[in-house]
Amino acid sequence: MNETIKSILNRxxxxxxxxxxxxxxxxxxxxxxxxxxxxxxNQQSWHFTVVQNKETLQKINQTVxxxxxxxxxQRFEEMAKSEKFNVFYNAPTLxxxxxxxxxxxxQCDCVLAMGNILxxxxxxGIGSCWIHAITQxxxxxxxxxxxxxxxxxxxxxxxxxxxFGYAAVAAPTAAPRKENSVxxxx
Length: 186
Ligand SMILES: Cc1cc2nc3c(=O)[nH]c(=O)nc-3n(C[C@H](O)[C@H](O)[C@H](O)COP(=O)(O)O)c2cc1C
Description:
By secondary structure, the protein is an alpha+beta fold. Helices cover 38% and strands 15% of the residues. Bound molecules: flavin mononucleotide. Flavin mononucleotide is lined by residues 12-13, 15, 129-133, 174-175.
């Protein structure tokens, strides 16, 4: 099996991280991989916000926590009630990918960029996990002000976000893949 296919099959979501920060060179490698994703009409409509500041990470976590507590979703409320709640599993780096809403397909562009980032991270020994709740920040006033504080460009929407750091646990085994998800017409 070639190395690229092996990497794709071996990437796993990691949900426990060491506190040691990833190296700047590693951050650059994975961001660059994101920027080399395909994009509709090569618009590269993405923007990457990297958060490594502990207080800012804490503030983002608190904002998600408040949002979860008021969400009306029992599962989210239960999670957020825990004192240990940390939406990005205490990872030292959070990457938020936002896209220009006026672009042709910003959601596709941003999600593909994040896909590249997750994969690239895994190939250089960095654990990662997609964190969906960050895409909901714009649903609360607190979240909206945080978005502007983070310098996410005006007119951009958050389409993807991920936690990154060195894994504090062994990668889990892959969940079985669904059967009957392919139809080949010949
Ligand atoms: C759109 C999307 C949203 C996700 N949101 C979360 C999340 O908020 N928290 C989390 O722990 N994992 C999240 N994940 C990771 C999935 O749970 C994970 O990819 C899936 O269980 C398969 O595991 P694997 O990534 O190890 O193959 C998300 C993945 C995707 C693609």
